[in-house]
Amino acid sequence: xxxxxxxxxxxxxxxxxxxxxxxxxxxxxxxxxxxxxxxxxxxxxxxxxxxxxxxxxxxxxxxxxxxxxxxxxxxxxxxxxxxxxxxxxxxxxxxxxxxxxxxxxxxxxxxxxxxxxxxxxxxxxxxxxxxxxxxxxxxxxxxxxxxxxxxxxxxxxxxxxxxxxxxxxxxxxxxxxxxxxxxxxxxxxxxxxxxxxxxxxxxxxxxxxxxxxxxxxxxxxxxxxxxxxxxxxxxxxxxxxxxxxxxxxxxxxxxxxxxxxxxxxxxxxxxxxxxxxxxxxxxxxxxxxxxxxxxxxxxxxxxxxxxxxxxxxxxxxxxxxxxxxxxxxxxxxxxxxxxxxxxxxxxxxxxxxxxxxxxxxxxxxxxxxxxxxxxxxxxxxxxxxxxxxxxxxxxxxxxxxxxxxxxxxxxxxxxxxxxxxxxxxxxxxxxxxxxxxxxxxx
Length: 442
Ligand code: ADP
Known about the structure:
By secondary structure, the chain is an alpha+beta fold.
C-alpha cells in the first residue's frame, strides 16, 4: 500500500474538519457542520464500495481511471487480480483445448466415467471401438451404451491389473484390449482405454501355433533318433571308439527332448487364460514327491529341509501346479553347488497360501532378476545347459501362477542365495477338514 494513498485519506479528513470550521464561522452550528462533512465523506465511501461490488458481481473489468486514495489502491489491486485470473483461465482453456486435441488424435478409445460410472467425455476413437459417442451419450451408463461382453463384470470387479481382451461386439474379427485406470478424488472416477489389438493378437497366435506345431512335429522324429542312439550307446556290439560320441549324442537328444516337452507345456499353458481341470490339489503330497525326485537329482549333494502345512490344500490344476513346484525345487538343486541348503515351505499366510523355495547358493545378480522368467533367459548359459536346463522353467512357473491368479516374487542376494515365493489368492485355499464339501462343490 502506498503512503500517498493514506496521506490522501488523511488530507480529505483534514479538509473536512477545516470545511466544518469554516461553515461554523459563517454561522452554522459546529455539530451540524461536522455531521454534514461526515455524511459527505461516508457517502463517497458507500458509493465507491457499491461501485466495486457491482463490478465484481457483474464480472466487469476494472479499468482506470481509478478513484484517488485508498479506494484507488483497492480498485487497482482488484483489477490486477482480475487480469491475473483472466490470464490463468485463458491458459487453462488453452491447455484444455490442447489436451482435447491430443486425446482426439489418439487411436485408442478413451472414455471418462463419473463416480457412478456414467459417461462424462469420450474421444472420437471411442465411437469406432466401443460405440460411445460424445456428447450424445454423456450422462448415460457405459454398460448401457456399450454392451461389450465381459465389460460389466470387469468394471465391477475393481481388479484392473490385467486388461480385458475380447472380440469387439460390433465386429467379432476385431480384438479389443480394455483397460481401466481409476483416477480423481479417492480414485472413484474411471478412465476406460480401449485398444485395437487385432494385429498383435493374430501375430501372437501365429507365433504360438508355430512353436506348438514345430515342437510337435519334432517330437516324433526325435523320439525315434533317441531310441536308436540309446540302443547303440548301450549295445555291447558298439565299437569302443563310437561309445563316447554316442553317449554325447544321447545327452544332447535328451536335452532336445526336454526343450520340446517344455515348449509344448508352455504352448498348452498359453492356450488358456485360466487353469482348466480345477480340483482340490494336495499340495503337501505333491511337494513331497517333487522333493523326493530332487533328492535323487542332487544325489545327496544338497540338504533339503521341508516346512509344510499338511492341512493346507489348494484349488487348482494338479499337473500345472506340480510342474511349477518341480521347476522351482529342481532349480534350487540345479543352480546351487553341492553342500547347499534348500528350504521348501508351504504355509498359510493371512493374504493366502504361500509356496516358497529358498537356497543359500550363488544367488542372482539384481539386473538379471526381472528377466529370468523370460523364455530361454539364463544367467549363465553354459552352466544352465550343463545342468540340463532348458531356460523355460521359470517361464512355465510364471504362466502356471498366472492361471491360478498367483504371483511370483524373486528375492536374491548374490553370494547368499535366492528365494522364490509364490503367493496364491486366499480364495484358492482349502483346509483339509473343509475338503469334502468344497471338493464336491467344485
Ligand atoms: P533353466 O532351465 O536354465 O533352469 P529357468 O527358466 O528355470 O531355466 O531359470 C532361468 C535362469 O534363472 C537359470 O538359467 C538360472 O541362471 C537362474 N536361476 C533359476 N533358479 C535359480 C536359483 N535357485 N539360483 C540361482 N539361479 C537361478
